[in-house]
Every structure is written in C-alpha cells, then in structure tokens.
DNA sequence: GCAAGCTTTGAATCGCATT
DNA sequence: AAATGCGATTCAAAGCTTG
C-alpha cells in the first residue's frame, strides 16, 4: 500500500479529527475517539516536579521554575490515578500493532513506567535523551540532571509493531541506533516566544519527535498527542507526511501550535541534514583513566624534564606538597602560568621511559570507541 | 575525624558483621542488622521475572516464568512485594543521612523506582550508565539496549546526605559531573571466570562502584550490598578505604567474591584524599584582612562590572550611600538578591586591574597556615 | 562587516551551622 | 523548632553589544 492509498484507507475506515487540535481534558476527548484507530500515541504528561522554594543562580538571578497549575498534584496516589486514566483510554484507541511513547524525568517516569506495565503494555525500550546543554546544578548538591527518559511500548508482547530498522541504522552512520540519544534542548529559532518570553515552559525539540516518528511510524500513519502543548508532534508529523491529532486544555498553547503547524513545510533534503545530531565528540576526563584502572591512585607523575612531581589521588586530582588540583590547574600553578594542558605536561614512567598521560587517553579511546 | 578514627567510631557504635559476606536470604539477614547503622546501601536486585531463574517470592518459593496476561499481573505483583520487602528493611538499617543506590533495566527499574518513592525515600538523581560496548540487538527489532539506570535516593526530603561535589567535579576535568556516565561493560581481566565461563551473568564494572562510593561516602563509611554477587561492591570498598557488608544466597558467588576481595589492595591513605569544598577550609573574617593591613579602611570596592561601589570602614563593614552592612549583606541588598557571597562579589583595584577580595583571603591563608 | 565579549537562559524536587 | 548569618554555587548555546 503506497502513501496516498494508506492515507485514504485510514480516513475512510474511521472518523477521526485528523490534523486538528481538540481543546479540553485529554481523557474526555479520547473517550470520543473510536477503538483501535491510531498508530501511535506520543505523550508528554505533566512531570509532577514538586519544586520547593525559589532557586537562585550563583550570579543572583532567579531560575524560571515550572510552577504552572497543570503540573501540581496533591499526592503520588493522585498522580497515579491521573496516569492510569489517560493510559487506559490511550490503550483503547491504539491499534493492536500501534505503539506508545511517553517522556518523563525521575520525578514521574518510574510511576508512569509502572502504570504502563500494569495496563498491559509491553515495554520495548527505554530511551535516554541526553541533553547536550542541560541546566547546571547551581548549588552543587547533586549530579547535573542532564537527561530525560522515554518509554516505548507496544500493546502486548506479541504485537507486530512498526520499527524502521534500516532508517535508524542509516541515520546513525550505519551503526545500530542505540537507546541513548543526544540532542540539545529546545532553543534558538525553534523555541516559540511571545513578547520575548517562552510560550511553553517545556517545549520539546523537533529532532526528538523526528527520530521517534521516523523510527516507529509509516507515512500516512496517525499520531495522537494527548498533551499537545505547542504542537511539536504536529509540526514534525506534518513535515514527515504523517497525520496527527492533538489535545490540550490551554487556549494559549493551542493558538501558538496552530500558527506553528500552519507554517511548517514538508521536509526537504536540506532540512534532513540539519535535523541530524552531530556525532558526539569523544571526550575523556582524566578521572576516567583512574576509574578504569589505566592509572592507579598513588602514582607519581612528573613533567617531561622531571622538574615537578605530583601524586595521583582517587578523585583524579594531583597533589604536590601543599598544593593540589586538577591536572591542568596544578600544572599551571606550579609553572606560574595562566593555563596548562595537563595531558601533555604530566608524564608517567613505564618500562620504556617517560610518557605523557595523553598516551593513556589514546589507549582508553581505542579500547572504548567502536 | 580522620579515616582511622572514623573507622573505630563506626565499629564501636554498633555491632556489624563488617567486611564479611552473609549467606542466605537478604531480607532475613537484614532483619538481624541494627537500626540506622549503615551509611549506604547499594543494591543490584534481580532484574526481571521473564528472564527467569533467580526471582523468589518473600516466602522463598520460586516464581514461575509465564506469559499469560493475568499471570503477568501476578508476576509483577510478586516482584513488587519482593521489592517492597527488601526496601523496607534497607530503610530501617540505613542511617538517617545515608543514601540508597539501586541499579536496574527497563524490565524492573520502573517498579523499583515507584517502590522507592512509596517507601518514603527521596530521589536525588537517576543516573544512566551508558555502555560503551553494549550487546547489539541481533534481530534488528528494537534499539540497541545500550544503558542501565541507577536511582540515588536519600531517606527523606530533608536528609543531609553525603555528596562529594568537589571530588566529582575534579574527576570530570573541572566540569560538574552529569547524570549520564559512560563505562565499558565488565570484561577482560576484571571479569571473574571459572573454567573459561563467567562466574556471574551480570557482574558490574568496578569503575561504576568506584564513582558511586567516591561520590557518596566518606572513608570508613559502611556500605551494605544485599545482592552481593561476586562482590564488586566489596572489592571497590576495600580499595577506597570503606567498610562493607555483603549478602548473597549462592555459595558459588560467595566463594568467588571472597577470593577476589582478599586479592584487592587498599589504596594508600594519602591517595584516598579528595578535593575538599572551600567550606572545609578555615573561616576568615573580612575584618581580619583590615586588622592585618591587607586592605585599608577607606578603600573603594566595586563589583566585577563596576556597577556598584562601596567604601571599606574600620570595622569591616561596607558603606554605599545610605546603605551599609557586611560584605555579604550589602552585596545582596544592592543587587536585590536574597543572598550574596561578598568574597567573590566585591573587587579591589590593583596595578593589574580588578581582583576579587577573595584573593586577599587566599593571601592571608597562605601567610598564616602552617 | 566581523570578531570578541558580555548577557541571558533552560522540566530544578538545589545549604548549613549556630542561636 | 524556627530564625538568622555566613558564604558556596553554573554549562552550553544563543542573542546582543561593543570595538
């Protein structure tokens, strides 16, 4: 079945509000849609962040928190009820060979994943969106929260879902597409703004939806997004020749989404190129060599002429007498220089003499890069 | 408290089977351990029912591998009970400021995460272990499952957990450590083998435990691993000068673990030292700089961009027009910020330009420290 | 006009010791 | 137990201003 035939077939078979945004509660609107009628459901539900007081950056400016009412739930139990409700309707609407995608963070994704399994879906993969430019942890109290998690599930273990394996492999330079994807957060020209401020606090990047729709739908397939927001799903679906249905409560988001999707054009060659993520730069931190046993804490390093010496500590810092710091900082401090490339400055001794620690970095890269 | 003192203190305070492996069911053995007695629990529980074999109900009976829908529910329910049971005991044993780490895959991590939250733990981060050399998806039916997920949680929202921020930042070449970590899977010399075959199917890499223990424990802290397997947690704990307790049912794993840990060498105490936060440095009152002549009353200070200026008074307060106060208070007031670090906010002019007054503090510390 | 530097910002569960 | 004071804390990308 070709593209056009498929579209005609889908339209004829059921009465769906295709390529439209429905305003209101997502569960109520889903109740109005027929059984087994959509090919994919992409959902970006509220994360239930449970944020505390105000957060200030080191420079004194305030972080613009997600404090919208739609993200507030009284208890985990209330959030679980909400999740079960929309997942149940979604399952009824989904075709037997359709798939579900949900995105979330550690605040909600475990509850969502449990509910997905309890509702009878079969998880196919969890996917990590690694943010190339996440917001830092300003207070230095935790690890930088640098990713979000997506769940991809079919309606059951035996379902024959769509997975465009070749397309994914091609997109990834002839290597199987992995479960960790790197994209920047949504910003720049792509980020919808009104009067200088963002329209939606959590707009998703089109690159993310592009990969999902390309991987798991065929041209003409119908994608339902019950938390449509500013319509990333609709915009990408239109560009990729897929049909879409959006549901959202907020008139402001709906207006912005309609305008955006109207302006979206079917994809051309040049756009494909820009949508692809740049290949991740292999970057090796000095600490990795220690964690991986290429260099032992307690090892003594020297510069090439053995004028300075320092001892490696467990955290990858170096110690020289009363001074200590990273390989770069300590090298600079000892030389009285403004900066120093620790990789080429510091050397270790092996059977064949003195070698720069950069040699160990090369060894590590060779051992770990495909 | 130094390393040795800390170890003595911990040993004296409670009667723990330190640096030993307990053979048998983890929940039963945990019941024998005292309340609030360990600093960290690292758990690598069985991942899933469908993979079969090593999942047991709390009563010790084995869960059958089944694929019927209602049985699936039965299976999930059994897994949830099992998870709640060990998490509950773990919580009782954990010190109020201790933390929990759990590792899992999409088969079980959502259920575990939900149980962690329901038990009252407070999730601090979820961490992604990105495998640099994952097993490919042979059939080409899904994305390559190239990661596992870890959950890091405290006992509650207000708990004051250990996080060695500076050590992590140093380990990562002076950038904040992110929530996505890349390591190779466990192989090569590190992988325990007997007669050419691997001893344990899911042996974790030491690099993973190294980062966890370095980030979230102090030397001498006690780590409990209720699913000890071949003892990666124990081997790394010994290396890093931490104490450990392991629990496992399988005699084969216990033997291998004991041999392995006996062969592990503790690092020299000086190498275990990590970079400290400035908070751990001795405090210097601003007034000390004036009393010691490093800064003269009447000196004009400005911020880095010279937007505000203030005059140093004899008592170490600053004056700016009608406002005055400590270096911190005045900095905060002028910016309209809730707080301000006066040491880095205020600058003085010397021959080479504008410098933060923190430079003077460093000069003072260097001159007065032994 | 272009380069260099400065400013802003992004789904965030973001301090701690003393009084 | 609650309030107060000290002072620790950010990365990458985009947009804008200055030279």
Give the overall form of chain A.
Answer: elongated
| Largest contact between chains | A-B, 77 and 84 residues
**Oligomer classification:** homodimer
Q: Which strand order spans the largest sheet of chain A, edge to edge or round the barrel?
A: 1-10-9-2-3-5-4-6
Question: How would you portray this structure in words?
Answer:
Chains A, B: It catalyses: a 2'-deoxyadenosine in DNA + S-adenosyl-L-methionine = an N(6)-methyl-2'-deoxyadenosine in DNA + S-adenosyl-L-homocysteine + H(+). Chains A, B: It is an enzyme of class 2 (transferase). Chains A, B: Keywords: DNA replication, DNA-binding, Methyltransferase, S-adenosyl-L-methionine, Transferase. Chains A, B: Residues 269-367 form the RAMA domain. Chains A, B: InterPro entries: DNA_methylase_N4/N6, DNA_methylase_N6_adenine_CS, RAMA, RM_Methyltransferase, SAM-dependent_MTases_sf. The structure is a homodimer of 370-residue chains. The first copy, chain A, has 370 residues and is of the alpha/beta class. In chain A, 33% of the residues lie in helices and 21% in strands. The first copy, chain A, contains 13 helices and 16 strands. Chain A has helices spanning 3-13, 26-31, 76-93, 109-118, 165-171, 206-216, 232-239, 251-263, 269-275, 286-291, 327-335, 342-345, 358-368, and strands at 20-23, 38-43, 94-104, 122-131, 147-154, 180-183, 193-194, 197-198, 222-225, 243-248, 300-302, 309-312, 318-320, 323-325, 347-350, 353-356. An 8-stranded mixed β-sheet of chain A has the order 1-10-9-2-3-5-4-6, with helices on both faces. In chain A, strands 11-12-13-14 form a 4-stranded antiparallel β-sheet, with helices on one face. In chain A, a hairpin with a 6-residue loop joins strand 11 and strand 12. In chain A, helix 6 crosses helix 7 (232-239) and helix 7 packs parallel to helix 8 (251-263). The model of chain A is unreliable at 269-281 (pLDDT under 50). Chains A and B meet through helix 4, strand 4, strand 5 and helix 10 of A and helix 3, helix 4, strand 4, strand 5 and helix 5 of B. Chain A binds a DNA duplex (19 and 19 nucleotides) through residues 46-53, 55-59, 61, 63-66, 71, 104-107, 131-142, 144-145, 148, 184-189, 191, 198, 201-202.
């Amino acid at each position: 079945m070709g593209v056009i035939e498929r579209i005609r077939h889908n339209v004829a078979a059921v009465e769906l509000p295709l390529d439209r945004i429905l305003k209101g509660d997502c569960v109520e609107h889903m109740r109005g849609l027929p059984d087994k009628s959509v090919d994919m459901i992409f959902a970006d539900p509220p994360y239930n962040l449970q944020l505390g007081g105000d957060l200030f950056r080191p420079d004194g400016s305030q972080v613009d928190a997600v404090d919208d009412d739609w993200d507030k739930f009284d208890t985990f139990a209330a959030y679980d009820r909400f999740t079960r409700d929309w997942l149940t309707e979604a399952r009824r609407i989904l075709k037997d060979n359709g798939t579900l995608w949900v995105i979330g963070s550690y605040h909600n994704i475990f509850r969502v994943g449990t509910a997905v399994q309890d509702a009878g879906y079969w998880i196919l993969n969890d996917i990590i969106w690694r943010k190339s430019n996440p917001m830092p942890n300003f207070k230095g109290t935790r690890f930088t929260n640098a990713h979000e998690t997506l769940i991809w599930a079919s309606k059951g273990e035996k379902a024959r879902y769509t997975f465009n394996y070749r397309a994914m492999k091609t997109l990834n330079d002839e290597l199987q597409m992995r479960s960790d994807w790197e994209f920047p957060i949504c910003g720049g020209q792509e980020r919808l703004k009104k009067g200088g401020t963002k329209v939606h606090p959590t707009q998703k990047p089109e690159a993310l939806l592009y990969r999902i729709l390309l991987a798991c739908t065929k041209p003409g397939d119908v994608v339902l997004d019950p938390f449509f927001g500013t319509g990333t799903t609709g915009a990408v679906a239109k560009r990729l020749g897929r049909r879409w249905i959006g549901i959202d409560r907020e008139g402001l988001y709906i207006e912005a989404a309609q305008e955006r999707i109207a302006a979206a054009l079917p994809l051309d060659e040049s756009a494909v190129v820009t949508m692809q993520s740049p290949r991740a730069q292999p970057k090796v931190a000095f600490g990795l060599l220690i964690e991986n046993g290429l260099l032992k804490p307690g090892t003594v390093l020297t510069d090439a002429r053995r004028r300075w010496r320092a001892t490696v500590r467990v955290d990858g810092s170096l110690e020289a007498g009363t001074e200590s710091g990273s390989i770069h900082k300590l090298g600079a401090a000892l030389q009285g220089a403004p900066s120093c490339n620790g990789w080429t400055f510091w050397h270790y001794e092996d059977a064949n003499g003195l070698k720069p620690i950069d040699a160990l970095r090369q060894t590590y890269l060779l051992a770990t890069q495909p």
